[in-house]
Every structure is written in C-alpha cells, then in structure tokens.
Design goal:
The complex is a heterodimer of chains A (about 475) and B (about 290). By secondary structure, chain A is mainly alpha-helical. In chain A, helix 6 packs parallel to helix 9 and helix 6 packs across helix 12. Chain A starts with 10 loop residues before the first helix and ends with a helix. Chain B has 2 domains: about 160 residues, Orthogonal Bundle (Cytochrome Bc1 Complex, Chain D, domain 2), CATH 1.10.760; about 80 residues, Ribosomal Protein L30, Chain: A (2-Layer Sandwich). A 3-stranded antiparallel sheet of chain B has the order 4-3-5. Classes of the chains: A mainly alpha (about 475), B alpha+beta (about 290). At the A-B interface, helix 2, helix 5, helix 6, helix 7 and helix 13 of A face helix 1 of B.
Chain lengths: ~475, ~290
C-alpha cells in the first residue's frame, strides 16, 4: 500500500528483524490450530456417538467444545494476527522491528498461556463464561504477553521513518487497544473473587464476547486485508473516505452488539444491541465497497494464492456479519436463539474470515521474511481449496440446521427429541467440513514447520562453520 | 486520520462508550440487586442454595453442562385462561349447549373456534379449560356470564410461548432468578432441554442419578452422553449400599456388583433439584395452580 515500500533500501533488514518473532508466533499458532480442530472434531463425533471416549472425564463435550473454540481463537487467530500486525507495522514504518526480543519472549509466554488455559478447561477449571473459559493463571499470562507484543508494535510505530498513516494503521491500532481493555475488564469482573451478582455476569460476558469475536477479529482481519489487497493488486486502497467511515462505524456501532434478544435482563440492553446491530450494516457495506473498488478489475491472477485467501476472507466477513445482524433482529432471534445458528456464525467468523485472511497474509509475507520461497507451494494452493470447501461444508449445513431446529423448537407440538434429531444429518456434513479444514491446517503447518526446520538447520550450519573455521590471521597477529 | 493520537482517541471513545453502556451501567443498575417478594405472599425470592446444591453448581460448570443446556425460559406474553371448576346442578351436555348458544355473541368471535374445540368430546371432567385469550377483559366478562347461570368458573393469568407449552416453566426467567448463581450459566444452545425448572419437573434425586449414569434408562431417545465416571461400580459388601442405583435390568451392574454415586454425582443431582423458578413475581406474573 505504501508504493515506495519495496524499493526502499532496507526491506531486507526489516524482514530479517522479524524472522525470529514471527516464527515463534506462527509456529505455536499452527500447532494450536491443529489442536483446536482435532478437539473440535472429537467434540463433533461425540454428538453423533455420545459414548465415544465416554469413560474419560477430561473429554466431555462441555469441555471439548470450549477448549476447541478457545484454542482456535486464542491459540491461532490472536498470535497469528499479532505476527502479521508486527510485520505490517515494521513495513509501513520503514523501520526494523523495535525491541525484537520482546515479542519472542511474549510469543512463548502466549503459547504457554494457551497451554495452561486448554489444560485448565479439560481438567474442569473453566470459568463458565463463553470465550472466557481460561482459568485465572492463563488469563494473566495471556494479558502480559499481549501487552509485551503491543509495546513492541507501539515502539516500532513510534520510531517510524515513514510518517504517513494508512487505513491499516487505524484498524490495527484500535485492535491493540481493544484487546487489553476488554480482556482485563472481563477477567476482573468475571474471573475474580468479587464477581458481580446475578445477570451482570452474562451481560459483561456478552459484551466481551462480541468485542472479541466480532469487533476485534474484524479490526485485525480488515486491517490486514486493507494492507495486502492493494499491495497485491498493485494500486492504492480505493476511497479513503469510505474506509474511514467503515472504521469509525465499526468501532462505534459494532461494540454495542452482542446482547441476545431473549436475555433475562432489563429490556433496554437487548434493544440497544439490536439497534446497534442494524447500524453495523453500514461498516459492512463500506468495507465491501472499498474491497470491491480496490480489487475489481485488478490485473492479478488469483491462482489459489494469498489474493484468493484474503478476498474470500472479506466475503466471509460480510456473510458472517449479515448472519450476526439477522440473529439480532427480535423476530428472527426468537427462532434462532439457542440453536446451531449461533455456532454457524462463530465458525464462519473464525474459519471463513479470520483464518482465511491470516493464511493469505502469512503465505504472502513468510517467503520474504525468511528470504526463501515456501517449501511446499503446492500445499498452499491445496490448502485454499480444502479451506474453502471446509468452511462451506461446515457453515452452510450448520446454519440451515439452526433454522430447522429453531422452527421445530418454536412449535410445542413437535417433541424436543424430534427437533434435536432433525439437526443430526446436518451435523454429519459439518463434521466433514471440519475434517477438510483440519487437512488444510495440516498443509499450512507443514509449510510453517518445514520453513522453521530449514531455518534452524541453516543457523546451525552457520554456527558450525564459524566454530570450525580457523582463526583469521589478522586476529592472531594483533 | 493523520496522527496516531487521533486513532487512539477515536478507539478510546468508541470502546469507552460501550464499556460505560454494557459494563458500568448494568453493574450500577443490577449489581446491588436484592431478593424480591413472591407475588401475593411475604416470602422472599430467590433463596440461596445450600450444601450439596452449591457444590453441584460447580460440578455443572466444570463439566460444561451449559454447552448443551440452557437455564432460561422464554415467554411471548401472557393470556387469560377461563377454567370451569364446577357445574353446579347442571349436566355437562346442558352446559355445552348453553356455551354454544353464546357463540353468536360478536365479542366472542375470536375465541369461538378454540372454545368449540375444547367442548368437543368433553365428558364432563373438571376442572376444564374452556379457552385462552390475550383479552383479559373478555375472559372476565365471560367468566361473569357463566357464573350468572350457576356454574363455577375462574380465570387464571398464564404465560404463553413454546417454552411454556413444552412444560419447561410456568413463566419466563427474569434477572432476579439468577441472583445467587456463581457463575451464572444461562447457556446458549439447546441440544438438550432447558433446565431452569428441572427440579420442578423431575423432583426425584434418584431419577437424576439414573439419568446421569445411563440417560437412555430414563429417556429412551436421549442423545446425552453417560456420565459414568461420576459413579463407582463395586462389589456388594456385607449388605447392599443404601445409595446404590436402582436401574432397569439392561443398564444394571453385573450380579454381585452395585453402582454407587460418587460425591460429585450427588452434588450435581442436588443442584439439578435446586433449579426451580416457578413462583409468580411482579415482573413475571401468573396465577399458580393450587
């Protein structure tokens, strides 16, 4: 997006400064993505065969499902997004990553936090609040790690050589502020010994979940897309004004969504949320317009590469936003609440939107960061098709089953068991979708790990040659 | 936006506003909530859980039961139900004939179908629900008219909606019901039935234990997994344990063995029994069945 960026003298030095932090962030992220998908797949199987692994108290559906979701969001989406964010900040600043050791430590800390959190959920230490299940110890580690990475990003920004701010900056900057605020609030209120009484808990929980899964992912996803789409298309981002409007409308309206319409809380809360949800159509529309204007007619062959990933990601964002908004309309909410429709939207947001954009960004930036082509470029292309098919097979049947289930639940003459049974055949298909996404994730992990191993071998070789090499005569003489 | 400060301020104001709205305001409005009084009584609601039920809430949390069960009943509104409680000296056929003569009244136009259907095939059994209407005045006017001809009749306020019709509760759940839940686990998915009133629907702890051990022994088409690990299968000692489950044959332990709930299972059952939100409140009124 910065037209002079690649011509600059120091691109290589900038990329080299990011090598270690990004490998630490992406490597762990790839592991957690696979772990999360495997846990999710086991949870899905348990829905069809309740007795599958039934003797193991660690693996009840109620533990697996949140552990899987959290591993994907906290384990994959957040660290991967932070890695891409650091790279974009360094590139746009035209300066090397500031405090490069800090994000390396933070990445390891972050993945340790996710490990403790996942183990905590499986051992029964969940806090009981959706998206905030990780026990206190994990939450503290994650919070500290995020602040460290944010500090490095802020320092990189502060010491920038290139003064211009780009739309990506707005979105990514807001994301850096967003997470510490919502995560600390939610944990201090819900994961401490002085939780507020009664329904204040779920209200804060919904506020947090909305601001994390909808707003935070939107900020990083769109911020990253608004960097890469124009860059790959070789033009500047279309319509600065539209982008600015989209950003402001997203943070001002999007942050008020999330309270379910049927919640047993004072009526003003769901009412405000449903108004905010309708207004959130505005940022969706302007983000769509900017994307279409930027990419339409661009002379880029999609070629199953990063451009495809990111474009599909933005389309999924629009679709997931529309599902989200429709579920916030009172007349639909009565049918869709408490059904598979909600999980369908969440999975679309995670795998269709956030993950697709992150895959695209990582495939695009990793070769230049490592100064090497991808070890298995064919895997990346295959990954695109597995990912796309997986998301469609996962989300579409799940959303339909939510509508079917909701219609049947709303009719008291239909037995509950029948309403439940009607969803099972849809869940079969979505389990296949999960499997496809898992295969894609394995292909992704293969590229990341092959690259890491190559790099480590390279480093080892350099060290060995250095040790073995005879002392230079100049040194001996002096 | 040209400077970092401008972005920071915009994001700060946006998130700060929603924080004030959805964190601060609810905490101020509801954080100091107190017990309320059950309608037409002096009793307080809700009561704090005690003993095993308190621990059982933590078992419910730890195993993630809320992933499949909600604890929240919804209602669409309220309606008046007109019930016939006594025929006086009339016969059922006479009453039916009289009631049918009322169908010509213009104000009854909206309910005649339901009214006629309820009388169809009625054998005189009492009490008898004649019809339900959202028009409270119509219901009481008709009740007066029926009383005037010497039958006993009463109107009840009832909640409406599919959750209520499924028997999941007599009224919607309201904020105060959750006052003592720590954490509050409303749930967001109904892969299993709602549990807000499971203690009313299934008041037997042994049935809950049987269901936790072998769900299909209680509900044949259940898709709930068994929570066998909350139970211990052991050899019967000198005398069978008083706690041992009394299961149907195909689910029971091998001869000479018995299935005994561990403390966690008992706590969970005690928690499930404590789930009752079936009293009328100011914000969720209904007429309880005596």
């Amino acid at each position: 997006m910065n037209p002079n960026e690649n011509k600059s003298c120091c691109t290589n030095a900038i990329d080299a400064s990011l090598r270690v932090p990004l490998l630490a962030l992406f490597g762990g992220a790839a592991v957690w993505l696979v772990v999360g998908l495997v846990l999710g797949l086991i949870a899905g199987i348990k829905f069809h065969a309740p007795e599958f692994l039934g003797g193991c108290p660690l693996l009840t559906y109620g533990r697996l499902a949140p552990a899987a979701n959290d591993a994907v969001l906290y384990g994959f989406c957040i660290p991967a997004a932070l890695g891409v964010l650091l790279w974009i900040f360094a590139r746009l600043s035209q300066n090397q990553l500031a405090l490069p050791l800090v994000p390396v430590v933070a990445a390891n800390l972050w993945h340790l936090g996710v490990f403790i959190g996942t183990a905590g959920i499986l051992l029964g230490g969940s806090s009981g609040h959706t998206w905030l299940e990780y026990p206190r110890a994990a939450a503290v580690i994650l919070f500290a790690a995020f602040l460290l990475i944010a500090a490095s990003a802020a320092a990189t920004f502060g010491w920038r050589r290139e003064q211009t701010l780009y739309p990506s900056h707005w979105f990514l900057f807001a994301a850096l502020l967003w997470f510490p605020w919502i995560y600390s609030t939610a944990n201090l209120f819900l994961n401490s010994n002085q939780s507020p009484r009664g329904v204040v808990q779920p209200i804060i929980g919904w506020w947090f979940a909305n601001n994390l899964v909808f707003v935070w992912l939107a900020l990083v996803g769109v911020g990253i897309a608004f960097y890469f789409l124009p860059k790959i298309a070789g033009r500047s981002l279309a319509s600065y004004g539209q982008a600015l409007f989209g950003f402001l409308a997203l943070i001002f309206f999007g942050s008020w969504c999330g309270i379910p319409q049927g919640a047993p809380v004072p009526a003003w809360l769901p009412t405000v949320s449903s108004i905010a949800a309708v207004l959130t159509l505005l940022p969706l529309l302007s983000i769509l317009i900017v994307t279409v204007k930027t990419t339409f007619g661009a002379n880029v062959s999609c070629n199953d590469g990063s451009f495809c990933f990111i474009r599909i990601g933005i389309m999924s964002f629009i679709a997931s936003g529309i599902l989200y908004i429709s579920a916030a309309c009172p007349q639909y909410s009565r049918i869709l609440e408490f059904t598979w429709f909600g999980p369908a939207q969440t999975q679309l947001q995670l795998f269709g939107f956030a993950a697709m954009i992150l895959f695209g960004a990582i495939y695009e930036l990793l070769p230049s960061v490592m100064d090497k082509p991808l070890p298995f470029p064919k895997f990346a292309k295959l990954h695109f098709w597995f990912g796309l098919a997986g998301v469609v097979l996962l989300v579409v049947p799940l959303a339909i089953s939510g509508v079917v289930q909701g219609e049947k639940l709303a009719d008291a003459h239909i037995a509950f068991a029948d309403a439940n049974a009607a969803t099972l055949k849809f869940l079969h298909i979505s389990a296949t979708g999960q499997l496809f996404i898992l295969i894609g994730a394995l292909l992704f992990a293969a590229n990341i790990f092959a690259m890491t191993i190559q790099w480590k071998l390279g480093v080892a070789k350099t060290v060995i040659t250095y040790i073995k090499s005879p002392l230079e005569t100049a040194e001996v003489k002096s | 936006m040209k400077t970092g400060i401008a972005i920071f301020v915009a994001a700060f104001v946006a998130l700060g506003a929603s924080w004030c709205g959805f964190v601060l305001a609810p905490a101020l409005q509801l954080g100091g909530a107190k017990q309320t009084v059950i309608l037409q009584t002096t009793d307080n609601w809700p009561l704090q859980r005690t003993g095993d039920a308190t621990l059982g809430l933590q078992v419910y949390r730890a195993y993630g039961c809320a992933a499949c069960h909600t604890e929240q009943v919804r209602q669409t509104g309220v309606a008046s139900e007109v019930n016939l409680t006594g025929l006086g000296n009339r016969k059922a056929e006479d009453f039916s004939a009289f009631a049918k003569s009322l169908f010509v009244l213009p104000e009854l136009a909206g309910v005649t179908n339901a009214f006629a259907a309820s009388l169809n095939g009625w054998n005189g059994e009492l009490p008898k629900t004649l019809f339900t209407t959202t028009d409270v005045e119509l219901a009481s006017a008709l009740a007066e008219r029926l009383k005037a001809v010497g039958v006993k009749c009463e109107t009840r306020l009832v909640a409406t909606g599919s959750d209520i019709a499924r028997g999941w509760g007599s009224r919607q759940s309201v904020a105060v019901d959750y006052l003592y839940d720590q954490p509050v686990q409303l749930g967001s998915m109904r892969a299993g039935p709602d549990l807000a009133n499971i203690g009313v629907r299934v008041p037997d702890a042994n049935l809950h234990l049987n269901h936790l051990y072998a769900p299909k022994s209680v509900t044949p088409n259940s898709t709930m997994p068994s929570f066998k690990f909350l139970f211990e299968v052991r050899k019967i000692g000198a005398a069978p344990s008083a706690d041992a489950l009394n299961l149907p044959k195909e689910f029971a332990a091998a001869p000479g063995f018995e299935i005994v709930p561990k403390p966690e299972a008992k706590q969970l059952a005690a928690y499930l029994l404590s789930l009752k939100a079936n009293v009328p409140l100011y914000e969720a009124p209904f007429t309880p069945v005596k």
